[in-house]
From TrEMBL:
<keyword id="KW-0732">Signal</keyword>
<comment type="similarity">
    <text>Belongs to the UPF0065 (bug) family.</text>
</comment>
<dbReference type="InterPro" id="IPR005064">
    <property type="entry name" value="BUG"/>
</dbReference>
<protein>
    <submittedName>
        <fullName>ABC transporter substrate-binding protein</fullName>
    </submittedName>
</protein>
<dbReference type="Pfam" id="PF03401">
    <property type="entry name" value="TctC"/>
</dbReference>
<feature type="signal peptide">
    <location>
        <begin position="1"/>
        <end position="27"/>
    </location>
</feature>
<dbReference type="InterPro" id="IPR042100">
    <property type="entry name" value="Bug_dom1"/>
</dbReference>
Length: 330
């Protein structure tokens, strides 16, 4: 009797467990059932936003649901990262971020999240060069002239950036260090408004990704001094590198990662990653990225492990350099 009761009870439990598992599997297969938010840490219309919106449009074709970009600006991208770290881990909130994910721990003494432990890692997207720009009527016509001019002008030159943690800030910091001079820094909520200020002549210099700057360079609205990669780039073949014109070894490439909150179910991360990898082969994404100077990352970087390993190496690379420069926010 006791055995039979236990047997029946066990069957009931197994049945119930089976149902729960089947229900869970069905829910995961059904994912996503509604729109997904992709948080961008900088202003709409800027270079990170351009990558996010083009990527989101392509990924939504695989996922069958819209990806809605939400711009959560402030504190050089750290507010957006903190928001996503604390969001519900249900597969409906993700973050796209760049090198700022790796530089923030050295730049911010009180960071509300740990980039290496508080996220679910989806994969990397594309690498983007930066361009050093001056306002159209800034006196020096080319990079060597700019270098001497900048050394002489120092803090009379206004340098726009997107706050501490932005790549525009990182580029400006390296530039000032290599020139041995100090500009006056003007922070914005992203480099979209920073570029508007450059076009309007309110600031003198901006270092920004090609995913925003190429159309303005082609329209001859700004002075292009050079690119921040070690070698010249296909999208701007006539632009010299800073490296070749006297700033030896100057290199910044902007990389992008997609993250979810830490406890996002692995099946959901896998599905989101599948959509990401499909987008990285989709001509509507890849052609636009190529026009804007971006390079799709190789397959091994398009994975959760590829992102996590890269992030750790970037934290190890930039941390000591930033600490040495003594730049930080309390
Ligand atoms: N280019 C910006 C940065 O400096 C970010 C942006 O506005 O997309 O990080």
């Amino acid at each position: 009797m006791g055995f039979s009761i236990r047997g029946t009870g066990l069957r009931a439990v197994l049945l119930a467990l089976g149902c729960a598992a089947a229900f869970q599997a069905a829910a995961q297969n059904a994912y996503p059932t509604r729109a997904i938010t992709l948080v961008v840490p900088f202003a709409a219309g800027g270079p990170t936003d351009v990558v996010a919106r083009t990527l989101g449009a392509s990924m939504s074709k695989t996922l069958g649901q819209p990806i809605v970009v939400e711009n959560r600006t402030g504190a050089g991208g750290t507010l957006a990262a903190s928001y996503v770290a604390k969001a519900a881990p249900d597969g409906y909130t993700f973050l796209i971020h760049h090198n700022g994910m790796a530089t923030a721990p050295a730049l911010y003494r009180k960071l509300a999240y740990n980039p290496l432990t508080d996220f679910a890692y989806v994969g990397q997207v594309a690498d983007v060069p930066m361009t050093l720009l001056g306002r159209k009527d800034l006196q020096p016509a080319d990079l060597p002239a700019f270098i001497s001019y900048a050394k002489a002008q120092g803090n009379k030159l206004n340098l726009a950036n997107a706050g501490l943690g932005a790549v525009s800030q990182l580029c400006g910091m390296l530039l000032q260090e290599s020139l041995g001079t100090q500009f006056t820094t003007v922070p914005y909520s992203g480099t979209a408004p920073a570029l508007t200020a450059l076009l309007g002549g309110q600031v003198d210099v901006l270092c920004d990704q090609t995913t925003q700057t190429i159309p303005h360079i082609q329209a001859d609205k700004v002075r292009l001094y050079g690119v921040t990669t070690l070698d010249r780039i296909k999208a701007l073949p006539d632009a010299p590198t800073l490296n070749e014109k006297g700033l030896k070894g100057f290199e910044i490439k902007v990389w992008h990662g997609v993250y979810g909150p830490k406890d996002t179910p692995p099946e959901v991360v896998a599905r989101f990653n599948e959509a990401l990898r499909a987008a990285l082969k989709d001509p509507s994404f890849t052609n636009r990225m190529a026009e804007l100077g971006a390079e799709i990352v190789p397959a091994d970087k398009q994975t959760p492990q590829g992102l996590q390993t890269w992030l750790k190496s970037e934290i190890d690379k930039w941390g000591p350099m930033i600490r040495k420069a003594g730049v930080y926010a309390d």
